[in-house]
Amino acid sequence: MKNPQQIHLLQKSGELFKKYGVKSYTMDDIAKELGISKKTIYRFVENKAELVKLTMQNYLDMERQQLEAILKTSKNSVDEMIQMVSYFFNQVREFNPSAINDLEKYYPETWGIYNEYRFDFILGMITKNLESGVQQGLYRNDLNADIIAKVYIACVDVLINQQLFPSKKYVFIDTYKEYLKYHLRGIVSDKGLKYLEQHNLFKS
Fold this sequence. Notes:
This protein has 204 residues and is an all-alpha fold. It has a single domain, classed as Tetracycline Repressor, domain 2. 72% of the residues lie in helices and 0% in strands. It has helices at 4-20, 27-34, 38-41, 48-73, 77-91, 98-106, 108-135, 145-159, 172-187, 190-198.
């Protein structure tokens, strides 16, 4: 059971890693930002690698709770996708793509946790959304849910690719929005498109 101080440490570390990247942001930086000593941080973790892993686990646990709540309250598949996209927009508003690249290169255990989550929970959720949308007549009846869901997951890797979309030139949330317009308009039926346009998902 995490105590309030540990929860605060993990949540704040998550915000900082997401904004500044993982490799370059040090334990000294975290301690300074939180107004505590490194000694206090080391009461909860043995090293930075453990902090990164626990921060990721904490973040994914919270995200899973938020997404499961959306699944329970959404009116239909397009509404579900709209709510999920809105949630993700808020999460990536200050996202530094190097954070994910750092995990893959320097923190393999945490990278494995992240990959298991997205190829299990997220992939399953997107697949079910697509299948339900077809049944509801909101998505094209000729789409292959398995393929489209995997393309959706894989495109995140494309969007954070620094050769294609260097962060000095592209703001991640802008590239993410463009991809989602492309994705959603490619899967909705005429009925689904009307619903999507009514909700003006991509307004500023």
